[in-house]
Amino acid sequence: MQIDREAFIASQGGASVVNRMNPEAKADALEDYMMRQLTPEGKIPRVADIEARIETRPFRRGVGHLFVAEEGDTNVRRLAPMPVKPTLADFFRLRFLSTGNHVLQSANLAMKNGLAEEIILACLLHDVAQELIKVDHGWWAAQLFEPYVPEQTAFAIRYHQALRFYADEANGYPYPTVYSYVFGEDYQPEPYIEETYKMVRQHQWYFAARQVTINDLYSFDLDVNPSLDQFTDVIGRHFTQPAEGLGYDNSPVAHMWRSIIKPDAPL
Questions:
Q1: Residues 145, 148: Cα–Cα separation, whole Å
Q2: How many Å apart are CA 44 and CA 49, to the nearest integer?
Q3: How many domains would you assign to the chain?
Q4: Which residue, 85, 136, 139, 197, is most buried by CB atoms nearer than 10 A?
């Protein structure tokens, strides 16, 4: 969800109060604020409550960020043109605007935790497909990046989606509290998610996918704003940038990149 920074700071009693909080306190306060925004009445919804809201909005929850107006806006905004031969950095700069800071924070945390570069890259890329579509975003993102990244990176991106619904507290991953508000307190993952989890749990790369969930951030630290520049070397070593530009290299997923480049195209 989009966070109104000023509204959040005001809800805590002002900037002076927020500045006195340590990072953990800020994260807890922000998660509480996010949950209250999702359910203003303070009640954790059930699956039936969430389904009842379907016909109360003019869009479906699975639509990508690029295709709906930003929170507080009536209409979508005009997008800046992309370069003729767009690079991954260009997409971060001009299209991954809703998810960019989140994945940068996740990759920053993974780097601080000393993870392998293939996993840092997975953390950097794991959620950006939500600009295109939110449904099964792990699978969409893995497909989007598969031609350009190491196989383990694509695996970690694809299967973080299923693993996020299953706690692994021994490795530092409790079930996120915010999921009860997003999916309902009685939510049960669909059978394909359950089967995927069982498969990945036994896979040699389980820990790679699990690390994406561990280093994912469900509360954002407003004082941490990593730059893509700190990952330039990681991208250079593990991301194969096509000379023709993403979307124009005739790869099996070029159309997906073009959809992100021109989401206003009618056909």
A1: 6
A2: 9
A3: 1
A4: 197
Let me know: does 68 contact 77? Beta carbons within 8 Å: no
User: What is the H or E stretch that residue 162 is in?
Assistant: helix 151-163
Question: CA nearest 37: which of 3, 68, 6, 13?
Answer: 3
Please check whether residue 17 lies inside any domain of the structure: no
Residue 68 belongs to domain with CATH number: 1.10.3210
Q: Which residues contact 216 (CB under 8 A, 6 or more apart)?
A: 106, 123, 126, 127, 160, 164
Asked if 180 and 94 touch (Cβ cutoff 8 Å), the reply is no
How far apart (Å, rounded) are the C-alpha atoms in residues 253 and 7? 39
Adjacent-strand bridge partners of 168 = 173
Of 41-50, 77-86, 235-244, 256-265, the poorest mean pLDDT is in 41-50
Calpha distance 161→211 (Å, rounded): 12
- Is residue 100 in some structural domain? yes
> The pTM is what?
0.82
Domain that holds residue 182: 44-261
The whole-number average pLDDT for the span 102-111 is 93
Contact 126, 103 (CB under 8 A): yes
3-state helix, strand, coil in the chain (%, to 5): 55, 0, 45
Q: What are phi and psi of 63, to 5 degrees?
A: -75, 145
Q: Does residue 28 form part of some domain?
A: no
DSSP, collapsed to helix, strand or coil, labels residue 57 as coil
What is the structure's pLDDT at 10? 60
